[in-house]
Amino acid sequence: MELTELIQAARLGDRAAAERLFTAVYRDLHRIAARQLREQPNAMATTSLVHEAYFRLARPESLALTDRQHFYAVAARAMRQILIDHARQRFAQKRGSGAEPSDLEAAEGVADATAAGPNVLALDAALQQLEGMDARLANLVELRFFGGLTLDEAADAAGMSRTTVKRDWRRARAFLHAALGEAVP
Amino acid sequence: MSGGLDWQRLAEQFDALCELDAGARAQALDKLRRDQPELAQELARMLDADARENGVLDQGVEAIAAVTVAVSARDRSGQQLGEFVLTERIGRGGMGEVYRAERRASDFEQAVAIKLLRAGLDGADAERRFARERRILARLEHPGIARLIDGGMDTEGVPWLAMELVDGQTLTAYAKSAALSLDQRLQLVIEVCAAVDYAHRRLIVHRDLKPSNVLVDGQGRVKLLDFGIAKLLDEEEAPAMTASGVRLMSPAYAAPEQILGEAISTATDVYALGLLLCELLTARLPQKRGQQSLEALARSLDADEIERPSALVDAAVRDIPAHLLVGDLDNIVCKALSREPERRYASAVALAEDIQRFRDGRPIAARPDTFGYRMGKFVRRHRGSVGASLLALLALLIGFGSALWQADVARTQARLAEAQRVRAEAQAERAERIKDFLIALFKDKEPVGRAGAKPKTPLGMIESGIVAAQRDLKDDPELRDEVLGDLADVGVNLGGAETAAPLLEESLSYRRQHYGDAHRLVASVLGSQVTAMFQKGKFSEAEPKIAEAQAILTAIHGPEHIDVANMENRMVRVLISQTRLDEAAVLMREVVRKTEAHYGAGHAELGLRLSNLGVVLMQMGQDEAAQVEFERAIAVLERAYGPEHAALGFPLTNLGDLQRRRGLLAEALATYERDVAITLSQLGNEHPAYAVSLQRLGNAQRMNRDFKAAETTLGRALAIQEKGKYNELADTYSRLSNLAADRDDADTAIARATQAHAHALATQGIKSRLTWTRLGFLGATLAEAGRTAASSESLEQAIAGLQALGEPAIADVAMHQVQLGSVRRQRGELDQAIELQELGLRTLEARVKATDGRVDTARVALSLSLLMRAGSADVARAQALLGQVEPRRSALSPNAHAALELARALEHRLAGDRAEALAALDRLDALIANTGLDGRWLRAESKRIRPELKS
């Protein structure tokens, strides 16, 4: 099935299609991220990651607005999942082997895994909490933070006004930072 | 935070407090603390967090991603993989890491390069694919390709490959450091091409050719790295995902199809070879490729002309002077870098050969515009009007898919060279003149190097050649005539019948006078005239010309000669147009026999002739025999050209039509799908022939009741045709109308049928049969929707329009009368229905052969009307008609067959035989279900009658 059809099917509630779409986007993002990181370790911009995935997979002109919105939502969610999976994997490795997982090369501008690892998992936990109370806000966080969309792009992708998105973002940011402040003192 | 919190209230309070200044906020919080302490506490935390900066969310995901996504960067030197020990990390690239490794055994030590691929493989499927690909790649054994030695997965599932360790420099670095000359550089590219071609012949595409993958070893021999590995990594993707193949490319070296996510083929590597050549010659890449993002490159693809390498040479870094590149090398690079894969060199070897021609100082094959491409387009566009056998002939003459223009030039050159040889002994001076003339002519046709000059169309070139020949060869009438005759012949084949016609007439009378009526050259010009007439559809006018040429050639060469057979092949086309089908079949079998005797059983020409024989048999209604011939034709063409040649399109299309007509839907679908795949790969996704193939496939999918697929397929065809304003648009509208009708969307069906008629009217005018048969189609569509009044009106107009066309449309008039009769019958106007259908049937019986399917269709339709009226003589007359049809039951179209069953059901009902009547209805329903025929009315009738019979 072509991507366009996949997105449409997923948007209309086809679960198998939604899973295939997610897997495809997940893999693609993963690769782009890994590659970018190797090539320009200091300059990885997530904005361009999701955009690039969009461009590569979907080809801008071929998608209708609603499908585009759906794609961005899926891509942002995939990005979130990638980061979580990696963080988990890393800790599992560390626990499993008993050895230091990696002597990450500072020369390449890669920061220490232990610092960021808890953050993403904690963020995910807080986000899940927020999701339970206000799915719209959680969705917005995915789009803006994990998807790297600007305020305007997120408004477009979520199909909401700029003012609403701005207000929602402030709410979500305050809630999540407050929650994280608790988890990681 | 506790779960019992009212989030909505919290959020609203938060918004409200944000608006306040610090003092007012503190007050409000205090008040809240008293009333709702829990809420206030959470609110305070949020307000604190709101005021803090540099939280996780502010830093952006990069901060997290930079760490978490990082692939393990640790150096794995010292680790063991399979039989190898990693000794030293020697590189990191887009695909993963590369280590130097050693295999230690008791008696030998082997150094290899081990590549750790960065993608993990998910699942057993991916592992199996990896193992399979590895086996295929391991079979590549060529001195120019680094060998794959071993491979596997480490404990974490990271795939690895052990490859021949190549000690060398990249191609571009080597060329620079060794200060290679132009010729030496070209030699290296030829070596690269040979290695690439070796892999291509084993169906392995590199997909990621770039200087860093092309090394030159200590002996100065090239070695290609990473063959097929890009695909191996890519296999993980969902196979149908459009963008697969692009991920691993560095944009700078990606071919357009990779950037756009289109199909990857060996042509993708040819493109990369073009870039490699360009970079080796100029130290630059075209289109500022080095600096652009993928997205920008994709946008520029259609907008930009390819820059000529000679214009790219940078004075500061140049190794090769620009003037050496102007002309041939520019053309070679530009051909390799064509946007459409099919316009590039057909293979890596073809590129190498052209480079070699340049090195030898011989003329190269690349031209600024590939004329074969345009010609192919022309031929396919006019496919319907020109007729299958003429096309087959043209295809033979010029070779589909190859650069037609070159073929024609070559042919003209060959003839002129022959003429030259014949006269050389006596007239050496004259031979020189021909050469000079040709050189002058072709020099003029070299648009490159004349900046700003527009390349001429092929026909334009022929026209200027004609002017030049008339002017320059005046004092040698014999030579002048021969050159003009050849140019006119090429002109005709390029679609310039008008330009050529007077010239051919002049040449004919000159040749009759000069050589006598029975000369070979007279036959040759007659043949050109026939081609011109065929193009205009003037088949009957061509008949005496063909007969004369045939007689001349038979007198010279004897009746078995292939030239005679070719002329007879054209006569068959004439006979078909006059519906002299028995004669056509006899003659066509003769042509096939002679062609086989001349070329042998496996030759492509035989395949095309067999296809023609199939067409004749199909016209005669001998479907089974026709199918045998089409299948034979396909087998012969496959043997001669391989499974993907465009020439297969003729027999495949015909076979598909035949299978569909016989109700063999599954077979027809497979045939059409193959035809679609071939036209796509050979002609590209904007070609009108591709649209025509899609249209047929879409129709078969519709009949198969796969409406979704049909809609997609027909939609694609429509998009191509609307964009190119192609004639076949009316067909597609009709198919879409059928589709809508099948989906019980009568309004759309009628709208599409109206569009089809309007399009035919606008493009063909009122003098065309098609215009009126489209109106008839609209009438039928209206009838199916139950709008019988409007239907009658359309059909009456169609009949009037067809009657105005006179003799050639008489059978059409009759068929439409039968159809109108059926509409009247639907309205219950049985007397009028029977009158019309009797009239139509009488005409058909008098005008077309008794075995023609249309006669039986009319008989069945009339029987139905008669059985419904059921007057005293009606039943007996209907029984007589059905008795006539019965022996040919199996040859009936699905529609007529179903109508026959309905008629039988009515007949049995009248006779009071309920069981027989029900059995006939069962057969009718089964037919409707199995063959996908457009049987809404029949279905409704079956439904209506069934309860009566049961009660």
Written overview of the protein:
The complex is a heterodimer of chains A (185) and B (951). With 185 residues, chain A is mainly alpha-helical. Chain A has eight helices and no strands. Chain B is built from 44 helices and nine strands. Mean pLDDT of chain B is 77; it is low at 69-73, 235-249, 369-432 and 441-456. By secondary structure, chain B is mainly alpha-helical. In chain B, helix 21 packs antiparallel against helix 22 (477-493), helix 32 (688-703) packs parallel to helix 34 (729-742) and helix 34 runs antiparallel to helix 35 (746-764). At the A-B interface, helix 2, helix 3, helix 4, helix 5 and helix 6 of A face helix 1, helix 3, helix 4, helix 5 and helix 12 of B.
| Span between termini of chain B | 75 Å
Instruction: Give the overall shape of chain B, derived from the CA principal axes.
Output: globular
Number of DSSP strands of chain A? 0
Uncertain parts of chain A? 40-47, 93-118
As an assembly, this protein is heterodimer
Beta-strand percentage range of chain B: 5-15%
Approximately what portion of the residues of chain A adopt beta-strand conformation? Answer: under 5%
Quick structural overview:
With 185 residues, chain A is an all-alpha fold. Chain A has helices at 3-11, 15-39, 46-58, 65-97, 113-133, 135-146, 151-158, 162-183. The model of chain A is unreliable at 40-47 and 93-118 (pLDDT under 50).
Supply database-style keywords.
heterodimer, A: 185 residues, mainly alpha, globular, B: 951 residues, six-stranded antiparallel beta sheet, 66% helix
SSE diagram, text form:
The complex is a heterodimer of chains A (185) and B (951).
Chain A: H1 3-11, H2 15-39, H3 46-58, H4 65-97, H5 113-133, H6 135-146, H7 151-158, H8 162-183
Chain B: H1 7-19, H2 22-35, H3 37-51, H4 56-59, H5 61-68, E1 80-81, E2 84-93, E3 96-104, E4 109-117, H6 123-138, E5 148-153, E6 159-164, E7 168-170, H7 171-177, H8 182-201, E8 214-217, E9 222-224, H9 229-234, H10 256-259, H11 266-282, H12 294-303, H13 309-312, H14 328-336, H15 348-360, H16 371-381, H17 383-386, H18 388-398, H19 404-424, H20 428-443, H21 458-472, H22 477-493, H23 497-515, H24 520-535, H25 539-557, H26 562-577, H27 581-599, H28 604-619, H29 623-641, H30 649-661, H31 665-683, H32 688-703, H33 707-724, H34 729-742, H35 746-764, H36 769-784, H37 788-804, H38 810-826, H39 830-847, H40 853-869, H41 874-885, H42 894-910, H43 914-931, H44 936-950
Antiparallel strand pairs in B: 1-2, 2-3, 3-4, 4-6, 5-6, 7-8, 8-9
Helix pairs in contact in B: 1-3, 2-3, 8-11, 8-15, 11-14, 14-15, 18-26, 18-28, 19-20, 19-22, 21-22, 22-23, 22-24, 23-24, 24-25, 25-26, 26-27, 27-28, 28-29, 28-30, 29-30, 30-31, 31-32, 32-33, 32-34, 33-34, 34-35, 34-36, 35-36, 36-37, 36-38, 37-38, 38-39, 38-40, 39-40, 40-41, 40-42, 42-43, 42-44, 43-44
